[in-house]
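User: Show me an example of a complex going from sequences to structure tokens.

Assistant: Sure. Here are the input components:
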Amino acid sequence: MDFDMISRTSSSVFLFFSRIFRLIFSPYKTMRSIAEDDDVVQLILIIVSIGGYYYIADNLRQYFHHPIVLFGLTTLHFLLTVGFFVFLRMSTKNSSQVKIKPALLLFGYALIPTLVWFLVNSWLFYLLPPPRTISFLGKGFSILYISFSLAILFWKVIVMYLAVRYVTRFTFFRIVYSMVLYLACVIPYSLFLYSLRLFRIPFL
Amino acid sequence: MSQSSYLKKLDLELERIFELQPNNLHVPALTYMYKKLTRPLKSLPIVYIVPLSIGSAIFMYLVFGPMVVRLVSLLQYGF
């Protein structure tokens, strides 16, 4: 392994962590810089993080299926999501020129809020297992938990909107329509996955 | 640096900035509202997201009461 490869990999790792940090405080600028990037190492790091989450979560509470199955399905869903929006762009803009690596990176970083929520949720499950009670502490924790979940949801909506905007180049209403179409496909599919005891809340 | 290289750099920068068509909601009032609402979200949205989330959670508790506690128990099983 030569020095050049080591330095490139280390810079990718550094960039990965710095982008996650900057995604919290300035998602617009960060996603804009990600849209110009095609670094595969960062994508691998995102996927490895998701795989790592499933193994950690399986140790905290055993899944019905093996974590490798859930990880494989999550990767497949991620690729289908990217494919969906890339297909929308190609079909509406009559353009066959779509940069796939930036699209993968953008939607990969859009998974970061989801990963954060799932990680925090799994650790809270271990430290403060449900069910919650209607005591003062239970209500207080519930309000904090809902605040945290809503903050992550708003963050996710912003990052997802930016990912769709940069991949598809759509304007506001088209982005809303494409998201509605995407949810129309995802929601019934998620219910199907729930019936198979694969995911309670889909990792999207 | 020569003038032509400056112009070239400017062209590239303008191309980069206007790579994306600006958002247009086709109704001037809506476009104006959209730009007003999204401007603060472009830089440091956490300043707005955190108080908004806390306010929404408190509002949800005031409206729905103990159902919020049940929702939290449900969400905690969600992973």
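The lines above are the inputs; the final block is the predicted structure for all two components together. Chain B touches chain A at residues 16, 20-21, 23-26, 34, 41-46, 49-50, 52-54, 56-58, 60-61, 66, 68-73, 75-79 (CB under 8 Å).
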